[in-house]
Fold this protein.
Amino acid sequence: MSAPSSAGPSTPAARDWALAGLIALAAALLYAFTFQTRTFCDGHGLVSLHVLHGEERYQHALYLPLCDVLQGALGLEDPFAVLHLVSVLGGGLGLGAGYLVLRLCGAARFGALLAIGLLGLSPALWFFGTTVHTQALLFGTVACLALLTLLAPWRRTPVALGLVALAFPLLFLTHQSSFTLGPGWVLLVQYARSRQGTRFSWPALLLGVGPLLLTALGVGVLTSLWMRCGSLAPFWAEMQKQMMIESVADAGMLPAVAVWREEWLLPLGVLVPLAVVGSTRLRRTPLLALAVAFLVGVPTLFFLWWGVFEGGGYFLGSDVFLLVPVAFLFGSLSRAKLALGLVLLAGQGFFARARIDAWDTGWDPAARTAQVRAAIGESGLLLTTAGQEPDIRCYLPGVEEFSLTSFVRNTCKHELELVPPERVLAQMKPLLDKLLERNPRVCVELAYPRVTVDDSPITAALAPHLRVIEAYLRERYEVRDVPNPLWPMMVLERKR
């Protein structure tokens, strides 16, 4: 297999721009026609916030305003459509931009196409490109900003640095975890400038470019806070709250070996072993090799340490750079490599579909809506435990929803510890009594025992609290169970 060139073309050829457009279109169509029914993780809240126009703002601050802008600009009446569109376009545009990034890094056209195809058909990107979430948007933003960095006019250094610094806050606004890309991006700037015939001295890079991008990241942090809170005052309170959200789920955290397997290796299919083998092809491009090592290595080490389950989503921010050694490994087209590439693409696609299809079952919002309607009709109160679907008002506007899980979670956040179930129940009783007194028709969704660590580490960790609350309601009220293998409900008839 051929070695990479020392540097790619100064700008992509017209043929490469056309191929990038075709890649983006093909991927967007694939993701649009295979969009999932089930929502994942933050997707439940994102649907609710956008459809119901909630006042609460999302921690990854760009997502909801972008949905609002797109819905207005495109004149979409269906609020669900734009949520799908953001994921579909994030994945598609990211793959198109990623192809151009690989070509600018010196990858042969065939190698770049194959690497992009393997990522587009991977369990990670195919999953997040077909569900309501921020991760496909993060992937697209990173790929487009990497393309901007490589195309910037580095012979006019102030202009190029200004373009990159102005765009850099978008990474944090798209997803807060993108700060892990910062050290690698400094090296990407060095590589981008070297492609145009010159380099920064190491002191200038570390003491000039580094602080500039760190400042731009700080601008992203403060802008995110202002967009969510309308003020910069609650900075430390917000940071403390975010850390507490994660500490509540400590019982569901994965050890580093499990994270490596479940969050990086399996969601990327064949890409990780191919990247390891292909890394030897970067010896002739040491600056690029160093940038890729930091852009992939720093996020990977951070998320291995953090140990949060996200189905490979957190790693998508660095995946476009993981493709560089893969593209260099395959190099230029030959019959043997074409045959091998087709086998790899087919295997990757089948593997991804098996994983996605296994996930996208059992938590259908339409089934839950039907259960609620059967239990209390078109109006009343729904108490929820599973937290696997958007607010019921998105489907039944006359039914109010109160999340028992969110109450427990917020109590633990307020106390800064995992509060014992009995203490949570004692705090909840007055609120529950008021809610139940003013709502004559009440049903309780009892699907929480089905929630695994894979579904939601936080909900799984709070299962003992939810069992105590369920026992209290059964003791205090005469209940009518509405059995269902997916969405069991109980209707509160009257006080005992």
